[in-house]
From TrEMBL:
Family: Belongs to the CvfB family.
GO molecular function term, any single one: nucleic acid binding
InterPro entries: CvfB_fam, CvfB_S1_2nd, CvfB_S1_3rd, CvfB_S1_st, CvfB_WH, NA-bd_OB-fold, S1_domain, WH-like_DNA-bd_sf
Protein name as it appears in the record: S1 motif domain-containing protein
Domain S1 motif: residue ranges: 150-210
Pfam families xrefs: CvfB_1st (PF21191), CvfB_2nd (PF21543), S1_2 (PF13509), WHD_CvfB (PF17783)
Domain of life: Bacteria
PANTHER family: CONSERVED VIRULENCE FACTOR B
SMART domains assigned: S1
Length: 282
């Protein structure tokens, strides 16, 4: 029955014992794993998993996810040396191995985030939760229409890297968030809200997590002022600085940086000299 680990099976009750019930193939269904009184020869639907001793046991609390079946699972614990544990709707929380998570822990899921997973097994036969690949999501995507342009959408991040992040929206649209369209890299499993900036011919979306220019200018200006105050009133940046240097430091585009500098100069809060920006003393 070990090959049925991670699946829902209909098994017959053989007998009742002090700790619960013995099912066919000598599988234990503990009293804590069922809220019903069962009788011998009764058939019951159970989910099979391994306990800490490596024995196959059962629960009548059926999960939303099993082997070869995908579903959303909420992150309940993060352990940097192992990975994250998710709740699949049963008593046993399942590990998503760090090998199946991003390389950098700052974009790992946090408690409360959700991952779209199925179940698999490690080399010792223990259950693991496996995040869905792009190919799996491609089977569930819907095609977006042009009337979504400039609307606000919510989506769950399922892939993230230096180039950008990808989310699936609540309507099952695919949304790509380029690294220039975010203040910080979102976490895997994070629910984000953004603005549709392009509906592509294939029905997928390009999404921005940044506010509109007229709103972001003030935020960017505040960030520049904060950096000036932290740096003794001078930073080695100007409107002639390299775009990559600006992005690496402020995580905004050169165009956004220039707009914010222009706002601050108009307000006579800063000045530029010799490729540097200075805070004007009050």
């Amino acid at each position: 029955m070990n090959n049925q680990i991670g699946t829902i099976q209909k098994l017959e009750v053989l007998r009742k014992i002090d700790t619960g019930y013995v099912l066919e193939d000598d599988i234990l269904l503990h009293h804590n794993e069922t809220d019903s009184e069962l009788e011998a020869e009764q058939s019951v639907d159970v989910f099979l998993y391994q306990d800490k001793k490596g024995q196959t046991v059962a629960t009548t609390q059926l999960p939303t996810v099993q082997i070869d079946t995908y579903g959303w699972a909420k992150v309940v614990e993060v352990l940097p040396h192992l990975g994250v544990f998710v709740n699949i709707g049963t008593t046993k929380e399942i590990l998503v191995s760090k090998d199946d998570l991003p390389l950098f822990e700052d974009v790992w899921p946090a408690v409360g985030d959700e991952l779209y997973v199925t179940l698999g097994k490690d080399q010792k036969g223990r259950l693991l939760a496996l995040p869905a690949t792009e190919g799996v999501f491609e089977r569930v995507f819907e095609s977006a229409s042009n009337d979504l342009l400039n609307t606000t959408i919510s989506g769950r991040i399922y892939r993230t890297d230096r180039e950008g992040a990808v989310c699936i929206t609540e309507e099952s649209y695919r949304g790509f968030i380029h690294h220039t369209e975010r203040k910080k890299e979102p976490r895997l499993g994070e629910l984000v809200e953004g603005r549709v900036i392009e509906v592509k011919p294939d029905g997928t979306l390009n999404v921005s997590l940044r506010p509109l220019k007229q709103h972001s200018m003030g935020e960017d200006a505040d960030a520049i002022l904060a950096r000036l105050e932290e740096s003794g009133g001078v930073i080695p940046f100007s409107d002639k600085s390299d775009p990559e240097d600006i992005r690496d430091t402020f995580n905004i585009s050169k165009a956004a940086f220039k707009r914010a500098l222009g706002k601050l100069m108009k307000e006579r809060k800063i000045e530029q000299r010799d490729g540097k920006t200075y805070l004007i003393a009050k």
